[in-house]
Amino acid sequence: MADSLDGSRAALDEVRSELRAFMDEQRIFCGFLDTEQRSYQELMRQEVNALSRLLDSTLRTDGSLRLVGLSGFAGRAASLALSRTPSPQAFRAVPPMPSPLGS
């Protein structure tokens, strides 16, 4: 009985040791993933800021809103944004709908 108990304790200690080693490895791996994610988010933030500045300066310098100097993603994004911008006629007053009851 004592041998069985000692064997169980030794097996339990071995499993604990392996589990701790695994947890340490996972902690390191998660640290790498967090660092990678923060780096990627910062890179995307910088890219979006650069594209926004480029778009702003292009729209500011070109009164007719032509996108001659833009290419790639910025040009497509700007074209899409402008194509979705309502025309000035869309903001004019719309006459009220006639009542279906006739009054």
In terms of DSSP E residues, the strand content is: under 5%
Q: How many whole angstroms does the radius of gyration measure?
A: 32 Å
Task: Give the total of beta strands.
Answer: 0
Structural class: mainly alpha
Spell the H/E element sequence. Answer: HH
Weakly predicted, low-confidence segments: none
Mean pLDDT: 78
As for the number of domains, it is 1
| Main sheet characteristics | none
Range of helix content: 55-70%
Shape: elongated
Please, how many helices? 2
Distance between the termini: 99 Å
Topology diagram in text:
Blueprint: H1 2-61, H2 72-83
Describe this protein with a few key phrases.
single chain; 103 residues; mainly alpha; 2 helices
What is shown here, in short?
The chain has 103 residues and is mostly helical.
Would you mind describing this structure in some detail?
The chain has 103 residues and is mainly alpha-helical. It has one domain. Helix content is 70%, strand content 0%. It is built from two helices and no strands. It has helices at 2-61, 72-83. The N and C termini lie far apart (99 Å). The mean pLDDT is 78.
